[in-house]
From TrEMBL, chains A, B:
InterPro entries: HTH_MarR-typ, MarR/SlyA-like, WH-like_DNA-bd_sf, WH_DNA-bd_sf. The lineage of its organism: Bacteria, Bacillati, Actinomycetota, Actinomycetes, Micrococcales. Residues 14-150 form the HTH marR-type domain. This is MarR family transcriptional regulator. Gene3D superfamilies: Winged helix-like DNA-binding domain superfamily/Winged helix DNA-binding domain. It comes from Occultella gossypii.
Length: 158, 158
DNA sequence: TCAATGTGATTGACACGTGAATCATGCGGC
DNA sequence: GCCGCATGATTCACGTGTCAATCACATTGA
């Protein structure tokens, strides 16, 4: 049997697919974020935080719990919360059980803003992302995503 | 025939595919960029600019020409060039034909840095992206990307 | 008790992105 | 020539991301 040498670099076709993929879906993300911003004055970060808080018991969470839940750096969350607090979307209050910690609480205004943003946002996802594909193709895309996740060993147990 | 009402929002499966896709490939991008940075001390922005300049006639380009080529906002490019110039990767010199313009010139150091970065970068693309998929699957991903590009009307002639 | 260490959270320095404003130069028509 | 507008490029203010440093409080063990 001949010696097999595995290519260590992509073929030009593979490289083209990589570049097209990353560039294209960067644009998709930007478009959907732009719609969110126009429709609801929310950034994707805002939305992510509001989504998590909306689903939380008592519409509130410990800051570090929130960071873990959405898988953000703590300092990133800190800045985000600061901006959102300035805009009145949430409140941070000292934590009774642990004086170091902070409870992040969704305000009524934050809840309202999130509620109002949901439908337009989902519509944007449908129009910009989902509608680009035939059903079969979307399923394949889901499978490819799954293959990537297992390649990267995401979804690994804690 | 019954009245057909087209869903205006994604099904939960479609939404899950969207979220998984965007999250997963965000991580892919971050990993490949991290490798580039570790291997070569270059950001993806640096790489993009160096790639364009390397391919340019005379290793130099007018600033606006460069911006158009890589499809960047002019102000974004301005900042990027400033940082890269400070690091000695390129030079900006006044333009003879048009005193408003600037010529961006790749320095020897910039050329060297780019050359050294190429192979490790391609390896990273292969290992992190390409190797995640079966060949058939990668082709499907390419087709899905194409579908998205035509959905967004990218690739439209100027 | 209290020093050592761990943990929750913020801060600071910087890289990077966008859009609006600015500034200088080119250029067409009078 | 020169006024007005177009164009090349940078600057500014701000949002957003990272990492390292910091600070306050908690916990633990001699």
């Amino acid at each position: 049997m001949g010696t097999m040498k595995r290519r260590s670099v992509p073929t030009s076709e593979e490289l083209a697919i990589w570049r097209a993929h990353i560039e294209t879906f960067e644009i998709v993300r930007a478009r959907i974020e732009a719609r969110l911003h126009q429709d609801s004055q929310l950034s994707s970060g805002d939305y992510r935080v509001l989504l998590a808080l909306s689903e939380a018991d008592g519409k509130s969470m410990r800051s570090s719990e929130l960071a873990a839940h959405i898988q953000w750096e703590r300092s990133r969350l800190s800045g985000q919360l600061g901006r959102m607090e300035r805009r009145g979307l949430l409140r941070r209050e000292p934590c009774a059980e642990d004086a170091r910690g902070a409870n992040v609480v969704l305000t009524d205004e934050g809840a309202r803003a999130f509620r109002a943003s949901t439908l337009p946002h989902l519509r944007a996802v449908k129009e910009v992302f989902v509608d680009a594909f035939a059903p079969e193709q979307l399923a394949q895309l889901g499978e490819a995503t799954g293959a990537m996740r297992s390649h990267l060993n995401l979804d690994a147990r804690p």
